[in-house]
Amino acid sequence: MAEAEEQETGSLEESTDESEEEESEEEPKLKYERLSNGVTEILQKDAASCMTVHDKFLALGTHYGKVYLLDVQGNITQKFDVSPVKINQISLDESGEHMGVCSEDGKVQVFGLYSGEEFHETFDCPIKIIAVHPHFVRSSCKQFVTGGKKLLLFERSWMNRWKSAVLHEGEGNIRSVKWRGHLIAWANNMGVKIFDIISKQRITNVPRDDISLRPDMYPCSLCWKDNVTLIIGWGTSVKVCSVKERHASEMRDLPSRYVEIVSQFETEFYISGLAPLCDQLVVLSYVKEISEKTEREYCARPRLDIIQPLSETCEEISSDALTVRGFQENECRDYHLEYSEGESLFYIVSPRDVVVAKERDQDDHIDWLLEKKKYEEALMAAEISQKNIKRHKILDIGLAYINHLVERGDYDIAARKCQKILGKNAALWEYEVYKFKEIGQLKAISPYLPRGDPVLKPLIYEMILHEFLESDYEGFATLIREWPGDLYNNSVIVQAVRDHLKKDSQNKTLLKTLAELYTYDKNYGNALEIYLTLRHKDVFQLIHKHNLFSSIKDKIVLLMDFDSEKAVDMLLDNEDKISIKKVVEELEDRPELQHVYLHKLFKRDHHKGQRYHEKQISLYAEYDRPNLLPFLRDSTHCPLEKAFEICQQRNFVEETVYLLSRMGNSRSALKMIMEELHDVDKAIEFAKEQDDGELWEDLILYSIDKPPFITGLLNNIGTHVDPILLIHRIKEGMEIPNLRDSLVKILQDYNLQILLREGCKKILVADSLSLLKKMHRTQMKGVLVDEENICESCLSPILPSDAAKPFSVVVFHCRHMFHKECLPMPSMNSAAQFCNICSAKNRGPGSAILEMKK
């Protein structure tokens, strides 16, 4: 009946490349594949008329009256020749052990697949539907219904005889039936009825909406979502009905249950099948379209939609057009939608094809993302669901992502992703590096190469370094700084740099990099030489870090020229490694640097460089006169005569004055201040420092004929010399600037001195009185004498062992104690006694005595 078609078994999406869904960027919710193997063989010679699904197997009925049991892959496991004509419906109980079959010639069979029990009956009209009790396997539930022109309920009695009862008739052929729990739903030409098998009552009648459609061409589709929710699809209308218990007060003569339509909406196309999917619906639709060329109606591909029912409308979640075999010749009644509740599998049955739709899993989601070249999202999805994915590996997705980025020219992003994707796989790292080399993008991957765990072959790192050395000196230098020196063969890179320096010997970047390479190679001498040539700031750090003081003994001048402050600090901090003598000798030809070194040495320790203090006089005089006078003041080792000679030669007055005073020639020093500097304030200050009356006399004599000097003396002399001595010598008639102010100041200073003396006297008297009172209180206190005290003379206990005996003890205020007989007799001149121990000292607290007698 069906023509053979050359079409490979596989994913249905491969055969629907013309569909608009594939053009969309929205990911489909379901995936499709043809049921192949035995099904393909069957449908090449026959056509499918009906199908039912169990969790363990499938049952397929054909137009030639055959029933095939299939596994879920479509392999034939059993075959039954039921009738020579079309099988209208197959029904299975929940256990999958009993099957009911009805055919177009009126035959009805109900039999056990694994037992011998069987029911056969042939009616005089076509039997369109059959439904066995869901729990037919139980002895109490041996029931099934059939439908042709009337709906019959067959029930086995206690004597194993089958009896039938008419549940409904008179409204045309029964064309659809679904049995769930205790409820049977069926559809005839007028509408849908529901029968309660327990109460033996029909509880509702749902009329069909569009009576213009032929019920045989557009049959009703019924589907139980659960034990109380029935979904009805007829024409373009969908109704969701809920069976509810009626309140006892409302029953009267009404059934105990009633039906409420909770959702009702219209679809765009004719419904061929329904199935629940969580809180959504899967709808198989028969589609007719009008040709733009002929303007005639034709059969288009059927659609499988997932919709979200609302109270009066619905929301489309996804929609797929299916290219099933022979869809151009099919009618609405030729399609059926069966489903497996346990696995959410949906079977689209047509005469020449069976297609399985299933919910897409994470692997399918990743497939779609990869197909749409959304590699980053695919990688993220794989990482999140790595325990659930079966067909994909994170690494494979990552490698595909890297290849995609490279093909797109995003080399930097591709290189950055290598870190995360390749991880610690050294072999993959090396493979990717060679790929980047082939496209000339080694620079892009260089920042992200692993530098430890894993470590790649040295050749990989050398290859990248050579790439930078040929085109980017700065980038090369950066890599040398950032990469550990053990990643590559250092000598190979050193030679390469030296070869480049032959062409550009003054390139500072290459020189600096070469110095770093020498450092990695522990060739510190060469590195130091380059750093000094370049005057590089790291030279001091290099010396300290690697203890290169033996290498810099002949490079001290270079270091000082580069940074004298740092060089001097380093040399002084490490004088145990480079002696002061060695440094001074090396700097002999550079006295200005010698001075910097010796000056810093003197600041640190005035005595360490004492042998060079004579030399330093000349150095200070030549290069640093402001520090000469402080040096002369602080140094106790410089020869004064030599310093005096140098200062006289250079006419350094202040320094000469200081040296004259140091040498004891204060009068000459004062004379030089007066004659050379003409600075009365400095002369007065000098006289104050020396505190010599003769100097003051010389100063007065020199100033007596110089009014400005006299003013200076009058203002400052009052606290050191009697101002009368100066005033008596002032010639009459001499004009002295600010004389009145000076005299007022002298008087004020005198008054201040008087006040100070009086204040000091008062303080002295008060303190003396306070101390006297304190001493008196102290001496008036009692002194404890017990058995532990001893006589300071005979060293025996101060108190006798026999308390009844008379004794005499003398206790001095100094707390020394004596037996009276141990003390010497007082002299005739003074009756006072003094402590023998304290008698060598001035008479004090120990001079008074306290005598105890008994």
UniProtKB/TrEMBL annotation:
GO terms for biological process: cellular response to starvation; endosomal vesicle fusion; endosome to lysosome transport; late endosome to lysosome transport; macroautophagy; protein targeting to vacuole. It holds the Pfam family TPR_Vps41. It is found in: Cytoplasm, Cytosol; Early endosome membrane; Endosome membrane; Late endosome membrane. Keywords: Autophagy, Cytoplasm, Cytoplasmic vesicle, Endosome, Golgi apparatus, Lysosome, Membrane, Metal-binding, Protein transport, Transport, Zinc, Zinc-finger. It is a peripheral membrane protein. The keyword Cell membrane does not apply. It comes from the Eukaryota. InterPro entries: Beta-prop_Vps41, Clathrin_H-chain/VPS_repeat, TPR-like_helical_dom_sf, Vps41, Vps41/Vps8, WD40/YVTN_repeat-like_dom_sf, WD40_repeat_dom_sf, Znf_RING. Residues 791-839 form the RING-type domain. Its main location: cytoplasm. The keyword Protein transport applies. Residues 14-26 have a biased composition (Acidic residues). CHCR repeats lie at residues 568-712. One of its GO terms (cellular component) is clathrin complex. One of its GO terms (molecular function) is identical protein binding. Residues 1-33 are annotated as: Disordered. Plays a role in vesicle-mediated protein trafficking to lysosomal compartments including the endocytic membrane transport pathways. Belongs to the VPS41 family. This is Vacuolar protein sorting-associated protein 41 homolog.
